[in-house]
Design brief:
By secondary structure, the chain is α+β, with helices and mostly antiparallel strands. Helix content is 29%, strand content 20%. Strands 11, 12, 13, 14, 15, 16, 17 and 18 form an eight-stranded antiparallel β-sheet that branches. Strands 4-5-9-7-8 form a five-stranded antiparallel β-sheet. A three-stranded parallel β-sheet has the order 1-3-2, with no helix packed on it. A hairpin with a 2-residue loop joins strand 4 and strand 5. The two termini are 24 Å apart. The protein binds flavin-adenine dinucleotide. The site of flavin-adenine dinucleotide has 33 residues, from strand 2, helix 3 and strand 9.
């Protein structure tokens, strides 16, 4: 039976860990790869007595120290951003879903819109504290090397060097023990993140044709922004189907560039006016307040639509090499016969195609996903660039796993979780040939 447990102090949580019960420790449950509902029972196998442990009742704290911020407990991205802004600082990476917890973001190796300008959350973290399997507090440094090495494991990640995340965790820095390992090796309790200076921002929108009719301008925008990472914070696209959920009906898509006001003129002069096939007249500016308001509206309306129509969204999370963005659009074009939306991180060639299938179309979507991940493997793309693997993508991971990956997972589980109490149905428990 899955049961639920919350803790209101670290001491309570430590006492619980010492009971050695197989558990899944979670934050805001916004994961798109773990169904935090009774359907999780379908994935538990031998661990049907798994306990879901809610970490959101723990005390929270934020402190500002120079250009770093210290975060303890279940602080959300919205809370962290408000805190940083009140200290004239900002954060260089956060997931689109800001009700998610920052510490969970380490566990999932979160990235997001500003990854285009500043890299991934992993790049920003300098220190992590976690509770190990004996409930002892341990510190990890972003400056130190990962203490275990399997040469073939490290070598297998080289083709992914320029992606946000490889199919398996990096395991290069000491902090990597907790990054992308999805809570399978301990419970994260605090971290330190580097921040950036706060700047007045604007959102520059480009009206472009619908990608399924003509994605040539999408490609041109992608290419034009590459030299301006950091000057431009983010380069996102949303297709006309998604825009509808924000209450607007357009014939084409929108691309949004997040730009500090001080760079706006330069971006118009050096980027926008140089995009082949695009007229500056098809651009408009939106304030951060308006942008946030619209962005918040969309997921709520989409969720309501899904609930009312008994639809379960099924999405991709793959990033490809810049030269293969065209092939990714072409591939997604084959899928437009089933209701869908396309949105995501255009500047990073990382787009989420979300099927919104009727119940009778779900099997077909699963079949298409199987073929798709096979294709991503052939492209040497990153199959799960930011949302993680959880339980829903475990089967798709198998195609990407090598002997050294299984070897590394087993070694880490034996050292850090010998009693298999941390998320024992996560991907690190996969066995070769299963
Ligand atoms: C609309 C939408 C947009 C999204 N956009 C993005 C995006 O742009 N980028 C992105 O990266 N993700 C995105 N996500 C995915 C999701 O928000 C992230 O994976 C997020 O990091 C999950 O945070 P959470 O607090 O909800 O964690 P949960 O869903 O509660 O848990 C996720 C995983 O983290 C582990 N975990 C949680 N807390 C801890 C802890 N303290 N210690 C150890 N392990 C822990 C859990 O065991 C679980 O494996 C999006 C999701 C939605 C619904």
């Amino acid at each position: 039976m899955v049961s639920f447990k919350g803790h209101t102090s670290i001491a309570d949580l430590q006492a619980y860990i010492k009971q050695n019960r197989p558990s899944l420790y979670h934050g805001a449950t916004t994961s798109t790869v773990i169904p935090f509902t009774k359907s999780i029972l379908d994935f538990l196998g031998d661990y049907r007595d798994l306990t879901l442990v809610d970490l959101t009742g723990l005390p929270k704290k934020m402190e500002h120290e120079g250009d770093e911020v210290f975060i303890e407990g279940p602080v959300t991205w919205s809370e962290l951003m408000a805190f940083c802004h009140s200290h004239n600082r900002d954060i260089g990476c956060y997931p689109t879903e800001k009700s998610a917890c920052v510490l969970s973001g380490l566990a999932t190796s979160a990235t997001g819109d500003r990854c285009f300008g500043f890299g991934t959350l992993r790049d920003l973290v300098t220190e992590i504290t976690y509770l190990n399997d004996k409930a002892q507090e341990k510190k990890l440094s972003g400056q130190k090397h990962f203490p275990h090495e399997i040469k073939a494991y490290s070598a297998s990640l080289e083709p992914y060097r320029h992606f946000k995340n490889p199919p398996v965790p990096w395991l290069e820095r000491e902090t990597d023990l907790m990054i992308g390992t999805e809570g399978q090796l301990g419970v994260i309790t605090s971290c330190k993140l580097r921040t950036i200076s706060w700047k007045n921002l604007t959102y520059l929108f480009l009206k472009v044709p619908h990608w399924a009719d003509d994605y040539s301008i999408h490609l041109n925008v992608h290419d034009a922004v590459q030299k301006y990472r950091g000057t431009i914070y983010g380069c996102e696209m949303m297709d006309k189907h998604l825009i509808k959920f924000g209450g607007r009906h357009l014939s084409g898509d929108l691309i949004a560039l997040e730009v500090p006001l001080e760079h706006l003129e330069l971006v118009y002069e050096k980027v926008i006016s140089k995009i082949d096939g695009f007229s500056v007249d098809d651009s408009f500016e939106v304030s951060p307040e308006q942008y946030r308001k619209n962005r918040q509206k969309r997921p709520a309306r989409l969720a309501e639509f899904l609930r009312q129509n008994n639809i379960v969204k099924m999405g991709t999370d793959s990033q490809v090499k810049p030269t293969l963005l065209k092939d990714l659009f072409e591939y997604y074009k084959k899928w437009v016969d089933i209701p869908h939306t396309l949105f995501g991180h255009l500047g990073d060639a990382h787009l989420h195609f979300n099927f919104l299938p009727r119940p009778d179309q779900r099997k077909e979507c699963e079949r298409r996903f199987e073929q798709f991940y096979h294709q991503v493997a052939q492209w040497q793309g990153s199959p799960f660039a930011e949302h993680g693997i959880g339980v829903l993508k475990k089967d798709y991971l198998k195609e990407f796993l090598k002997d050294s990956h299984y070897e590394m997972f087993e070694m880490l589980k034996d050292i850090y979780d010998p009693k298999r109490i941390f998320f024992p149905v996560g991907y690190m428990n996969l066995k070769q040939g299963q």
